Structure prediction request, 694 residues.
Amino acid sequence: MTDCWRLDSFNQTLVLAGSGGRLPCVTYWGAPLPKGCDLSAIAAAEARDVTGGMLDANPSLSICPEAERGFPGQPGLSLRDASGRVLRPRLRLLDVEAEESTLTVRAGDAQIGLRYAAHFAIDPQTHVLTLWAEIESEAPVILDWLAAPVLPGPQLSDEMIDVSGRWIGEFQLQRMPWSAGIRMREARTGRSGHEHFPGLILPGRGATNTAGAAWALQYGWSGGHRMLAEELPDGRRQVQFGHASGTELEPVTHAATAPLLVTFSRAGLNGCATAFQRHIRDRVVTWPAPERPRPVHYNCWEAVYFDHDVAELKQIATRASALGAERFVLDDGWFGRRDDDTSSLGDWWVDARKYPEGLTPLIDHVHDLGMSFGIWFEPEMINAESETFRAHPDWTLGPMDQIEGRQQRVLDLANPEVRDYLFDHIGAMLDDHAIDYIKWDHNRLLPHPDAAQTRGVYALLDRLRAAFPEVEIESCASGGGRIDAGILARTQRVWLSDSNDAVERLRIQHDAALFLPAAITGSHVGPRQCHTSGRVLSMPMRAWVAAQRHMGFEMDPRELSEEEAQVLTRVTAWWKANRDWTMRAEIHRLDSIDTSVIAEMQIAEASDRFVVFAGRAGTSAQILPRPLALTGLEPDALYRLELANGQDIGPASRGDVALARGAVELPGAYLMSQGLQLPAAFPDTIWVIEGRRA
Ligand code: GLA
Prediction:
């Protein structure tokens, strides 16, 4: 007799089935199944044949595949007892608790005193399933590996897309064919990392951004994950996610995975992307003031670096505010004796040489301009050249003779004394000043991966948030080195990349949108000549790319020409006038036939309006750009489209393109199947097209 359970949302069904007192398997995860359909028939239909070259029955690919049951692939759990002897659990099902939108599976191995639980929850509004697993052991055990509930990899998929990257080049998608054996990604640098965003997409054959089946997963943990996608000798596939292996350095009696967020789409990769965007924004992130519009940021880093001068900063703030900034963020350089990056991390008090009267005069000035004030910390780090290190050399993580990174070491956040110290010093800054925002940086790798460090950071963040609930926090790690749903449960923004090069940013934003919503993705207008690439880019390009996400500025505004200032003011005003819906819009990546065009559509929740951003990241192979097909429209409805930046039509366009002449009204069917003719343009430019249902 087979027991079956199902979880449903509008776009997907997940079925669990089990028999014989064993752990159940996910027998189905995909397009919604009819209500009331016979799940045991589906479980029976999943039974595979047995032939030569295999065992006499197929060991089950359960939610935690067990080595002891002949499973021919990677097990979901690897344990040793405290003396190091391998434990070989044989889990027996204890019970399954099923509610409307949650399932909990409990199992145990009485002989070795082990309990296992798998949790599943489906969110009917966001369409995301959250999965996590935990174990409890009577005696302390060494945990080598614990996977979140294991999912079968789709058979009707040829490849997987995972994410790599680097500093100033985050979110690079890698496509790998499924093949015999294991594709493994493991982040072993103690943070989710530029190199290892913990996400995976499994496109069905032929899936594009806008059509076809796709399965997607992301793991909510900031300490480094392990993903393995394995094809077994019999052709079955499994996907496992968990903390990077062996990062529980001490024996444990309880351990849990982080939440694994997963979703299925019948509407191409965009169906997964928009589910994740909603879920991260509305379920994972907690907003101090959800109704408050996202303020336009000004960040002084690329304007002054460590060279802080109150009079200059005031001037800069005044200019930034005139351009439309609403929050001034004082970056690195305000504390200790921090004149460059060789000293002072850990000394979290105001540098009286630079701020003889403290920060208050600058903060008051910023407030008088109507802006709020944010400040930079890098709490988990310490320079050997600091008072704090001299007083507490034992607070650092790893050996004394370790290789440093940016001349700094990592504090041991598992040590409560260290957390108290940081809470007290950051807390004192927040108590004594009207600060509503922290940019929380993390600029080096850990000397060794360590889950306790991540838990320590989470505990510190949670404590600060409880004590200062009105303060928002941004997660930065040399740009996008710590972006994941774990840190986002404690922060409200990510610094996606240190690259303010709008052409690079266009691409990074495009690919990050597979996992992240606009409202939490910071994007700044950088200096005219980009500091990380040397490229000189026009203000329209820089401003509109920043306006795709949570907008800010990060150049010295005193460098702006009159014309640049006008453009920036205009685009910022556009962003403010539209943010109430764009920051809640779904980002749909467009499948631009013209490979030089990176394009997306932001569609309002009410589906009555949208904006298209079509960036020209290169030159087309043919003379004119190819038409851009839109998505997500009602085929029969009529839409009125208009260029938001008609001023930017330049010398490359001398013909009679309809959009260049004014508004056009076209049916959804035409826009989605034939596409929109864009005016010709130079590379490194962008078209912004507003659309409304007519
Ligand atoms: C990191 C961040 C930057 C800036 C510097 C300050 O590199 O990513 O945005 O804050 O640190 O040192």
